[in-house]
Design a protein that fits this description.
Blueprint (H helix, E strand, L loop, with lengths): L2 E8 L12 H16 L5 E7 L2 E8 L6 H20 L24 E7 L5 E9 L7 H9 L6 H4 L7 E7 L4 E6 L4 H8 L5 E8 L13 E3 L4 H5 L9 E5 L7 H5 L7 E4 H4 L1 E4 L1 E2 L15 E10 L2 E7 L7 H15 L19 H8 L8
Parallel strand pairs: 13-14
Antiparallel strand pairs: 1-3, 1-4, 2-3, 5-10, 5-14, 6-7, 6-8, 8-9, 9-10, 11-12, 14-15
Helix pairs in contact: 1-2
This protein binds fructose -6-phosphate and magnesium ion (MG) (2 copies).
Length: about 375
């Protein structure tokens, strides 16, 4: 019987401001999920906070897109929203964009990364959670994990990885997708995913003929919900999450977290309208401070055992990432000095907050035609 791991997240309120999930919301979510575990709907769960996002990790047998599992996540977020409203937390219920659950949380506000697969004799899995950025922030690290031989030694020296992987890319503007193989289509793939606000990596699969893994079961998945497109206006961030399986014919655990040693620039800092470095941190520091950031990523590592979680290990709670954090702060400082100028501030089309239409209105006929 296959295992499904679902990571479903929403910002249903935080403190102070957009800083951090309140512990009482985590406790509320745990109570809801414990009930579901008791009645057998899920086999195990783990509740976490990443910045202002409440993260529900669930192990079950119901498959992807299950209305029962999505309904459980929705009810859990509703229960947490109720508490958030009582405490007058900031942005209480912000990502609950609909009043009525209709069988699937897709398009309703929460972000979802879930995958169904046949558990191997030992199944290592990493749950990544980012705050103050967008799904495209995963393009660079997921590419490096599964396609960059300078990151993943296994692509060169492990016969089980050597053939490469298959990427599912979503065009989130046109709502269409394409499958591409690496290494043979590497340059074409990069031409797309370098444009990270439009083309996002949704899933990675083993290629046909992988010696150890079925080609139709994903080995990585990223949440790709875009809140501002869902609601037709800016209502909050689409801070992404991802699940990545590791080892035994896949990139090793250390190859899965290696790309995060480089604090690459991502968009979504302050008001969803600024570029900044993504800083890998321990759960202790999964809170946003300076200029509502800098954008952060946490990583929880588990062994999956019959759809239950053995772990987590707080993978970035390690001096091995100290230098990265220092570099991230240097980059943050450098970017901040640009103030309201691009490329710190995003280009006009990508900003989630703007006063420009009002300014243009006000200037009106003061704009003069030039020869
Ligand atoms: C929210 C975020 C924050 C807010 C900012 C303004 O996830 O990234 O930077 O955009 O704090 O928030 P409001 O408009 O709610 O005061
Ligand atoms: Mg918030
Ligand atoms: Mg957030």
């Amino acid at each position: 019987m296959k295992t499904t791991i679902s990571l479903i997240k929403a910002d249903v309120g935080s403190y102070p401001g957009h800083g951090k999930v309140h512990p009482v919301l985590i406790e509320t979510a745990k109570k809801e999920l414990a009930k579901a575990e008791k009645n057998g709907l899920i086999l195990d769960f783990h509740v976490m906070g990443a910045g202002d996002d409440l993260e529900l990790l669930m192990g079950h047998r119901a498959g992807e897109d299950s209305s029962k599992i999505h309904g459980l996540a929705w009810r859990t977020f509703e229960a947490a929203t109720k508490v958030a409203k009582e405490l007058k937390l900031y942005g209480a219920g912000q990502d609950m964009l609909s009043d009525a659950f209709s069988g699937n949380v897709k398009g309703m506000g929460p972000g979802i990364a879930e995958m169904e697969f046949t558990e191997r004799p030992a199944e290592p899995l990493v749950a990544f959670m980012m705050d103050k950025t967008e799904p495209g922030a995963f393009n660079l690290p997921i590419y490096k994990i599964f396609a960059d031989p300078f990151n993943t030694a296994g692509l060169v020296i492990d016969p089980n990885c050597h053939a490469g992987f298959k990427f599912e890319i979503w065009d989130i503007q046109e709502h269409r997708r394409v499958f591409m193989n690496t290494p043979e289509e590497t340059y074409d793939l990069l031409a797309l995913i370098g444009a990270k606000s439009r083309y996002v990596i949704k899933r990675v699969f083993p290629k046909e003929g992988h010696p150890k893994l079925p080609e139709d079961e994903p080995v990585a998945v990223v949440s790709t919900e875009k809140l501002y497109q869902i609601a037709g206006e800016y209502v909050g961030k689409d801070d992404p999450v991802a699940l990545v399986r590791a080892q035994s014919g896949l990139p090793a655990l250390g190859e899965v977290i290696e790309p995060f040693a480089f604090p690459h620039l991502v968009s979504g800092w302050m008001r969803g309208s600024h570029n900044g470095p993504i800083m890998p941190v321990s759960f202790k520091y999964a809170q946003c401070t300076r200029f509502d950031g800098p954008p952060r990523v946490v990583a929880a590592g588990f062994q999956i055992s019959n759809a239950t979680f053995v772990g987590p290990v707080d993978l970035f709670d390690d001096p091995a990432y100290d230098l990265t954090r220092k570099k991230a702060q240097e980059i943050a400082e450098y970017m901040r000095r640009h103030g309201p100028f691009e490329p710190h501030r995003l280009p006009l089309a990508e900003m989630e907050y703007t006063t420009l239409p009002k300014i243009m209105n006000k200037l009106g006929d003061r704009f003069e035609k030039m020869e």
